[in-house]
């Protein structure tokens, strides 16, 4: 389901296996040397967040959070990908939080504006689905209860 929001293309575009493998190899090489540069961490986290695999997204968000905490000068560039990672994992509250922080710093950022629209749409859709499921469960419960009451009244 491609987005009609061109600036939020990161939400649907993943790196190829080979591209992600290049980033992973660099990260692991530096890790083995006991010095991973912030740029290598960021590149690897960026690739992981863009992945369609949840375990990659979780790891990417974890690395981005580490960078966000440890490198104040790099916080701005982490905000969008943290928001994107949380969005892709279905955690819309945190996605809104990080995207909101970016939009406070850069109100005209088109990526953040587009991602904000995607987050709002998906959160609303999931909310409607949740309400529909809850309503369906309540209806089934009411039917079962009515059947039990009817059966008890016959005896």
TrEMBL record:
Q: Which InterPro entries does the protein's record reference? A: Fis1, Fis1_cytosol, Fis1_TPR_C, Fis1_TPR_N, TPR-like_helical_dom_sf
Keywords in alphabetical order: Membrane, Mitochondrion, Mitochondrion outer membrane, Repeat, TPR repeat, Transmembrane, Transmembrane helix
The GO biological-process annotations, alphabetized, read as: autophagy of mitochondrion; mitochondrial fission; peroxisome fission
Question: Which compartment or compartments is the protein found in?
Answer: Mitochondrion outer membrane
Its transmembrane ranges are: 128-149
Query: How is the protein disposed in the membrane?
Result: Single-pass membrane protein
Q: Name one Pfam family in it.
A: Fis1_TPR_N
Q: Which GO terms describe its cellular component?
A: mitochondrial outer membrane; peroxisomal membrane
Q: Does the record bear Transmembrane helix in its keywords?
A: yes
Q: Which domain of life is it from?
A: Eukaryota
Q: Mainly resides where? A: mitochondrion
Relay the domain remarks: The C-terminus is required for mitochondrial localization, while the N-terminus is necessary for mitochondrial fission.
What the protein does comes down to: Has a role in mitochondrial fission. Has a role in outer membrane fission but not matrix separation.
Query: What's the family?
Result: Belongs to the FIS1 family.
What name appears for this protein in its UniProt entry?
Answer: Mitochondrial fission 1 protein
The organism of origin for this protein: Candolleomyces eurysporus
Source species taxonomy: Eukaryota, Fungi, Dikarya, Basidiomycota, Agaricomycotina
């Amino acid at each position: 389901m491609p987005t009609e929001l061109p600036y939020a293309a990161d939400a649907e575009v993943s790196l190829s296996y080979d591209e992600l493998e290049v980033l992973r190899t660099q990260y692991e090489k530096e890790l083995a040397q006991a010095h991973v540069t912030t740029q290598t961490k960021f590149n690897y986290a960026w690739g992981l967040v863009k992945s369609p695999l949840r375990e990659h997204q979780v790891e990417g968000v974890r690395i981005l959070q580490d960078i966000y905490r440890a490198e104040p000068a790099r916080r701005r560039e982490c905000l969008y990908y943290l928001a994107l990672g949380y969005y892709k994992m279905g955690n819309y509250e945190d996605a809104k939080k990080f995207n909101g922080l970016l939009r406070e710093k850069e109100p005209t950022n088109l990526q953040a504006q587009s991602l904000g629209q995607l987050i709002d749409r998906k959160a609303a859709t999931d909310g409607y689905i949740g309400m529909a499921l809850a309503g369906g469960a309540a209806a089934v419960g009411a039917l079962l209860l009515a059947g039990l009451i009817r059966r008890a009244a016959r005896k």
